Amino acid sequence: MTLNVTEIFRHPIKAHGVEALKSVALATGKCLPWDRVWAVVEEGRTLDANAPEWVSCRNFTRGAKAPELMAITAEVDPAAGTISLTHPRAGSITLDPSNNDSIAAFIAWSKPLTPANRMAPTALYSVPNVGLTDSSWPSVSLNLHSSLQALEAQAGASLSPLRFRGNIWLNGEKPMQEFDWVGKEIRIGSVRLEVRERIERCLATTANPDTGERDVDTLKALKTGWGHQDFGVKAYVLQDGTITLNDQVEIL
Questions:
Q1: Can you list the domains of the chain with their CATH numbers?
Q2: Distance (Å, rounded) from C-alpha 61 to C-alpha 57?
Q3: Smallest Cα–Cα separation from 3: which of 248, 193, 190?
Q4: pTM of the model
Q5: pLDDT tens, 72-120?
């Protein structure tokens, strides 16, 4: 069966909003542009903004700890350098990450979305030319709809792709076949990638991206159905190019 691109997503602020794209230009050794450029530091974490470096997700507020964050949508204005965010309960806000007052307003806006028993958001963090993905190397995540359909059947519930915060979604192929691609190269449109790792999932995927409420135990479904909590894979861009909706995928 032919593999095709069905959706492309980016998440400019880690765990704080998703934006759908029709096409994207990828660069060798880089994350998807405007994807996880920033993350929100949680209270009690000491990160040096003057000497920033990649750190793990445990330093940041995210959907695993604050499920309401999963309901945020985002829209980037590359020319203005701003990000507009919308949440069904919190409303909308436009953030200019270069402006301290704007950052403070964003932190205040996001704070009520974090449970009272969790560490509050305190600051916006970024590392020049480094995406704050869950891998220490610049990754682009790939997911299969056939795997999602199999997980839906196991869970007994409809599941939005947005639960999994993936970059590129593909149709075709048998469930969980993306795991067979680890260690192989693939071509999507004019981009060549090396698939490096499976993605181990967390509690963020149990939250409904429309409501921000935990409603399906996706982790139990994965464990029961397949004996692990992996879903999707991470890839490294080997060759510049553009990916567009409906582009075909070739396993090299």
A1: 3-9+21-30+135-251 (2.40.33.20), 38-126 (no CATH)
A2: 8
A3: 248
A4: 0.96
A5: 999 999 999 999 999 999 999 999 999 999 999 999 999 999 999 999 9
